Amino acid sequence: MASSEVTFAVSPSIVKVHVLDSKGGHGVGSGIVVADDQVATNCHVIANSQGVQIAKYGERFAPVSMKADWRHDLCILQFKFLNIKPVVLGDTKKLTYEQSVFSKSYSGNAVKPVVSYGQIKALYSLDNENIIHSSSGFAMGASGGGLFDDEGQLIGVTTFKSPGRFAYFYSIPVEWVKNLLQQGKDIELTAQTELPFWDAPLDKRPYFMQTYDAEREKQWGRLFEISSLWLKSEPQSLEAIFTKALSQFELKDYVGAKKVLDEVVKKNSRHARAQFYLLKIAKVNNDTNQILAIETLLSQLDESLLQEAQ
User: How far apart are CA 107 and CA 16, in angstroms?
Assistant: First the structure.
């Protein structure tokens, strides 16, 4: 877990974004200083706004222009004389499952940046980069905040969460920030021209998002169908393989599920949810040695899953 010194060090680079919407209402989000005079946030925070400002140290600053990647929900506001230190940009290609991370944002419209600790639970390929699913929770106001590794390097922008009581939290990758900084074109503050990938009609969303409702509503046959389509589209996707195994397990095809889960952990032994379901299968089969081995591993990866399996 990141030290308090590291989490404190990134705070100056996290700003609050204030927006005047089309009806005259006030909205808030978060932003990250990613380069001199450049603040990254989610486009949905500022989309169709009548005015945008950021706040830091009791001062307010208005952008002079922006760069937008509407599909990826990433906008970079550009300022003059901002004089706020940028964060260090990291690399999602180096991330591993269950690696500790932390987010920093104005979650819940807090007065100062709020830190949330967690682990990387999954990585989903989208447009050749990695969407990050982590257990670093956040609430309204956190959109546009930063997800960091234990060294304080920015690895993602906290963007959206799944519905329901037990939400999943997702961040878009820092590589999209790097790309927009280098290749984005300056535009004036403008109306939204395209929905972000996560807000598209359900059948147009990435497969990892299409699994939300099926899993939450325990529609295991539907989940199997979605995972099959996902695997056809992305045969090497670890999460597509796991989702198929999950559906097989819930459909009580334990032999088929174990075969696929073994494939998942062979590719990535740190996949805690795969280990969790292998543990459940081991208990069905009364395999004492396997139970002990997986419980030992889960105690190191995700203690909460081990407790859930008891």
Answer: 10
Whole-angstrom distance, CA of residue 141 vs CA of residue 16: 9
- pLDDT tens string 189-238: 767 888 999 999 988 999 999 998 899 899 999 999 999 999 999 999 99
What's the whole-model pTM score?
Answer: 0.92
48 dihedral zone (left: phi>0; alpha: psi -120 to 50; beta): left
Contacts 24+ apart (CB under 8 A), 209-218: 211/243, 212/162, 212/163, 212/168, 215/246, 216/162, 216/163, 216/164, 218/250
- Provide Rg for the chain, Cα atoms: 21
Stated as kind and residue range, the H or E segment containing 207 is: helix 207-216
DSSP conformation class of 54? E
C-alpha 159/C-alpha 143 separation (Å) is: 5
Contacts of 263 (CB under 8 A, 6+ apart): 241
| Tokens linked to 217 | 């509503």
Residue type, 147: L
* Sequence-ordered strand ranges (E) for the chain: 14-20, 26-35, 38-41, 51-56, 59-61, 65-69, 74-78, 88-89, 100-105, 114-126, 129-134, 145-148, 153-161, 169-173
Give the start-end residues of each E strand in 49-182: 51-56, 59-61, 65-69, 74-78, 88-89, 100-105, 114-126, 129-134, 145-148, 153-161, 169-173
Dump strand ranges (E) for 143-231: 145-148, 153-161, 169-173
